[in-house]
Write a structure and sequence with these properties.
- By secondary structure, this protein is α+β, with helices and mostly antiparallel strands.
- The protein folds into two domains: 105 residues, 2-Layer Sandwich (Phosphorylase Kinase, domain 1), CATH 3.30.200.20; 233 residues, Aminoglycoside phosphotransferase (APH), C-terminal lobe (Aminoglycoside 3'-phosphotransferase, Chain: A, domain 2, Alpha-Beta Complex).
- 42% of the residues lie in helices and 16% in strands.
- The protein is globular and about 60 Å long.
- The protein starts with 11 loop residues before the first helix and ends with a helix.
Length: 354
């Protein structure tokens, strides 16, 4: 999102009015939930049940067809046994509604959906054991495997050529490099982009294509206690970055975000990789590019967080969550080098797969 004041800021009374008018429900409790550029609100109606009212930013609200596709994907995953949210129909049977409301920036249009509330805490709140990391890798692979079977008349919309968050578009970061002027990190990011051009792009024709969730991160995966005194995945959130990509992209994104939450980030790759390969084994070129793709996601996250803070300084705390930890990890992984990191990941994965 690059437009100032595009993020909605609905008041509790506006939320109550929408809930009543669109869904004929009376909100007894409303509280904010985290969001990068939309507005998410927990809603508990007096009629029972728990929901999340998701109000899209003004820019994404201009593309209702892709939001409808994302909503369909969530439902498709749910039907195939994965813990995704589903949208509740309005009283007129629609899964979303375009609302023209003034929430402080003049009258603007916002797409609104009422989603099922999934219980649990985010990954960032639980200890990341090897078992849980393995399960996270397995779930990411299973998710992409299911999404690849999805049929929809507008799947072509997921070919998001200039989508800055696609791991296929790392070279677009070059347009934003000025946000790192004067920061020694800029040289690392430039070097990673060069490695991407030299080692990933020539091998990409051998990657297997799929539909990526694209943001399988520490805040978009929910956990609940299981019967063995550990945790299990209870929710997959936020399909706003869904795009046509490659299986290896999803794995790289998953490893990167789990590294952010782990006290020893290098140890994350092995268990996530083992879980992933129990569903979708990697081919030679995919394996060879994993290290650079993980670094590339760190670069995307860091550069775009700095850029977003420049546009939205009021949202700095949320926008920089990943960035603050990520800078140190990126530098460490870069310094350790491809050969060392790959050996740790692949040797550990092999041990776990025996």
């Amino acid at each position: 999102m690059s437009v100032k004041n595009a993020q909605p800021n609905f008041s509790p009374s506006q939320v109550s009015e929408i809930i009543k008018r669109l869904y004929n429900l009376t909100a007894s409790e409303i509280r904010p939930l985290p969001s990068y550029d939309d507005q998410n609100l927990y809603v508990a109606p007096t009629e029972g049940g728990e929901y999340v009212l998701k109000i899209m930013n003004t820019e994404d609200s201009k593309n209702p067809t892709i939001i409808e596709l994302q909503t369909y994907a969530m439902s498709f995953l749910y039907q195939n046994g994965l813990p995704a949210q589903t949208a509740m129909p309005t009283t007129s049977g629609q899964l979303m509604s375009l609302e023209e409301i003034d929430c402080g920036y003049g009258c603007q249009k916002y797409l609104v959906r009422l989603l099922t509330y999934l219980p649990g805490v985010t990954v960032s709140k639980v200890p990341l054991t090897p078992t849980l990391l393995n399960e996270t890798g397995r779930m990411a692979a299973r998710m992409d495997e299911v999404l690849q079977k999805m049929e929809h008349p507008h799947l072509s919309l997921l070919e998001r050529e200039n989508f800055i968050w696609s791991l296929s578009n790392i070279c677009l970061l070059e347009e934003y490099m000025s946000v790192l002027d004067g920061d020694p990190l800029q040289e690392v990011v430039k070097s990673v982009i060069d490695q991407y051009k030299n080692s990933v792009i020539p091998r990409r024709s051998n990657f297997r294509k799929c539909i990526n969730h694209g943001d399988f991160n520490d805040l978009n995966i929910l956990m609940q206690p299981d019967d063995n005194h550990g945790y299990k995945i209870s929710g997959i959130l936020d399909f706003g970055d869904m795009n046509s990509g490659y299986y290896i992209n999803e794995l790289a994104i998953t490893i990167m975000y789990m590294m952010i939450e782990h006290p020893d980030p290098i140890e994350v790759g092995g268990p996530v990789l083992a879980g992933w390969e129990s569903v979708i084994p990697l081919n030679k070129d995919e394996k060879d590019c994993l290290y650079v793709l993980v670094l590339s996601r760190f670069c995307q996250s860091l550069v775009m967080a700095r850029y977003s803070v420049m546009l939205h300084p009021e949202n700095e705390e949320y926008l920089m969550i990943t960035s603050r930890k990520g800078v140190k990890i990126l530098q460490k992984v870069w310094e350790l080098g491809k050969e060392h990191v790959e050996k740790v990941w692949f040797d550990h994965a092999a041990q776990l797969s025996v």
